[in-house]
Amino acid sequence: MEDVIVVTTEEVPGYRVVEVKGIARGGVVRATHLGRDIIAGFRNLVGGEVREYTEMMAEAREIALQRMIQHAREMGANAVVGMRFMTSNVGQRMAEVYAFGTAVVVERE
Amino acid sequence: MRLWVLPVLFLLLSIPFVSAQNGAAEAFIKSMSSGDYSYLRPYLSAQMQSAFPESKFRELRNSLIEKYGRITNISYAGSEGGYAYVKVNFEKAAVTFKLVMEGGKIYGIWIVGVSRSSKSGLTPQEAMMEALVRDNYSLAERYFSPLMKKVFTKALFERTRGMIIQSCGEIRGYSFERKEGDVYYYRLLCEKRSVTVTVTVKGGLIEGFHMGFPGFNFALPVLYPLIGALLAVLALWAYLRVIKFAELLLGMAVLLISLVVQSPIQAIPQLVGAGNLIFQIVWAGFIAAIVQEPLKYYFSRDKGLKEALYVGAGFGLAEGILTLGIAIVFGGMASPLAMLERFLVLMFHASTTLLFAYAYREGWGGKALGAMVLIHGVMDSLAAYWKVAPSLGLLATIYIITALTAGIVLFTLIGKAKNEVEEAKIVW
Q1: What is the CATH number of domain A5-108?
Q2: Measuring CA to CA, which residue among B275, B259, B249 is closest to residue B149?
Q3: Do B427 and A33 make contact, defined as CB atoms within 8 angstroms?
């Protein structure tokens, strides 16, 4: 199956939108484990990058993006335009990352 | 100032203090043995000289001789804080005196323990204490409940007494402290320090005996379990050339969770009064396995092999730390064998979590979990039985099962863990 084009712009250069399928979305709530939380706590004392949480959030964004693409595919779209990420805290040391955009069908101009 | 100077300075400053205590105790011994008050007088504080004049001294000495017979031996029984202990052996009893010291002077003289030589007229709790002091198991045995007779065997009694002596020095006497319900608290006076023990008596029979809280005991042998566990972690690191601190910490947390869950469940047979010893042993062993192994499985199954291995290592390391803590607080002792035991146990835990992660991704995680619950249950049941009936053969069997299990799993899988290519971290 052809890859879904994902862009943050409203249009895809070289393509024209022929059909709007709706909002494609994908979300995930991620937490790391207690051991990493403790290590992150130490890093918080010392300062500098908290790699444990950098990795956790990066993984969460990746998962949310893939889920949004999967959703767009299921809707019959071949592109997502105006894609955005949203994030919020769900609980202590848990973050939700949500990816959304407009699922569309595009054709080459 | 170099740091080593501090303990040396402390020791030098302590010498006059200890000497002063010994001097006063020596004077007390001379006065007690000869009946001559003049040895003791210079060491008494002004208040004590008026409160405890020669007439009172003679009165005390004569009344003790009248009650317990002539003095056979007097010895210095050590010091603790601002107190010095002197044990006076009479024909019929041994009396322990506690001298309250300050600045080389005696500010108080207390009788803190009387150990009777006669077997007659002893209460069950006194019989237990006498048995410890005189190394005579039969004194206490006659008062044991049927369960105690099974559990607290002569061998265990001797081992316990040996541990006390090794940890606190020769047992000099004891003194009654208090009673709470059926539990009698005694202070066992030993050469180096005293230790609190409890004797539980129900219906005229001894139902339990426990070591209490002797305070902090930081002799080198208590470090053996921790050294063993650390050596095992070091060995894993030496082979894998990587250490996962986060997973070590996670494994430690898993142990804490498992202890919170398993301890109340393990106590159920005792709470409901199920008296069958073998049932209690098997129950304790298998509950530990049924609680610990699934928790380890849950926390390691979806991790990389190295990460999973270190979850188990953290679990074993926390057990080592816990063993050390118990030894420090409760005054337990450890032999160099404890080092080997902790090494093997940590390897066992590391191997189980490694197996769980591998089996889970291969689709037979449940079977691996079942097998490990069974092996762990048998191991812990045997270990619980060994505490009741210690024998070298049984101990060797436990070690062999542990070593074989850990050895086979590690031999098969640790290479895979070492060569496992870790996924590139997503950081964008």
Answers
A1: 3.30.110.70
A2: B275
A3: no
